Here is the input.
Amino acid sequence: MTFVTILGYFGILLLLLAFFLLVIGQLKVIDMHYMMLNLLGAFLVLLHLYSGGTVPVFQTIAAWLFISVYGFYKHHVATTT
Here is the structure.
């Protein structure tokens, strides 16, 4: 198992953890921790997919990453104004 593959598995773990914490009420969609877990998780999965994943999955995770960045930016702008 390569280092990039391990990073990909860790990214999936972060995405699942974020979703689980959201479902059990420990995090809210607007929480910075939720956004950061999504952002980092998507980035790590994207690294793994870049090294040999399928195109549709790569595109899905890339979209997930951009949506996470948008949410992070929107939250940052909302809290600084």
The two ends are 46 Å apart (CA to CA). The mean pLDDT is 88.
